[in-house]
Amino acid sequence: DQQVKQNSPSLSVQEGRISILNCDYTNSMFDYFLWYKKYPAEGPTFLISISSIKDKNEDGRFTVFLNKSAKHLSLHIVPSQPGDSAVYFCAASVGGTSYGKLTFGQGTILTVHP
Amino acid sequence: DAGVIQSPRHEVTEMGQEVTLRCKPISGHDYLFWYRQTMMRGLELLIYFNNNVPIDDSGMPEDRFSAKMPNASFSTLKIQPSEPRDSAVYFCASSTMGIQETQYFGPGTRLLVL
Predict the structure, then answer these.
(1) How far is residue B39 CA from its own chain's centroid?
(2) Cα distance from B55 to chain A (closest Cα, Å)?
(3) For A98-112, what is each residue's pLDDT tens digit?
(4) Do B105 and A43 touch (CB under 8 A)?
(5) Is B45–A102 a contact, with Cβ atoms under 8 angstroms apart?
(6) What mean pLDDT is predicted for residues B82-87?
(7) What is the average per-residue pLDDT within B94-107?
């Protein structure tokens, strides 16, 4: 049972435009959400997170939005750059910022064209 | 710091053979995680340790999989006997205080079972 789903396997965007990556979850107990970025031949690296008490968190060009009623979160990258081309994983956990088992989605391959 | 070190980086083996994956976490980190990445299921947590003690192994697919952490600087994930469906990328990650953002991933081991 896939509790965290990224239904778009890939996304292609022009440099300078906005990239929107989506993630849906089914477990209403999840209270902390994260996005990780992964380049080829490397492990994932943490990008940005959001607690369920917020609906938006921003860090430079990256903004994560959380819609609890829809059990949906999205990552916005503005403006997109070729170096953003990578696989993006969303993840969720129960337990806030202390350790909780991370449940990951399948990942979305983002390609930003110059 | 060298980061999380995994070996081998690539492994090709035949069905029925034993496979051992190795991980050296970042010095001072007290949590260690083993993940598996597949196209269908994304990143799945297999098992994690805290202070060398296995805490949650509910993600281990079956008895063919076993993991050990004999000391704070070394862990192994063993598959015996291996099957073609075990083909995936296996990641090791370590963290301090269990906080999700501080999970640092190794580069992964790409396993192919023929």
Answers:
(1) 17
(2) 11
(3) 666 788 999 999 999
(4) yes
(5) yes
(6) 96
(7) 80
Q: Locate A26 and state its tokens.
A: 């089914």
Q: Which residues pair with B49 in a beta bridge?
A: B32, B54
Q: Position of tokens 């202390």?
A: A98
Tell me the nearest-neighbour CA distance from B107 into chain A, angstroms: 4
For residues B72 and A2, give the distance between their C-alpha atoms in angstroms, rounded to a whole number: 32
Contacts (Cβ under 8 Å, ≥6 apart) of A34: A46, A47, A48, A49, A50, A90, A91, A92, A93, A102, B100, B101
- Assigned token pair, B65: 């999989």
Asked whether the beta carbons of residue A43 and residue B43 sit closer than 8 angstroms, the reply is no
Which residues in chain B have Cβ-Cβ distances shorter than 8 Å to A39? none
Give the tens place of pLDDT for each residue, A38-95.
999 899 999 999 999 999 999 999 999 999 999 999 999 999 999 999 999 999 988 7
* Cross-chain CB nearest to B103 (options A2, A41, A46): A46
Q: SS3 of B79, please?
A: strand
From chain A, the residues in CB contact with B44 under 8 A are: 104
Contact A43 B4 (CB under 8 A): yes
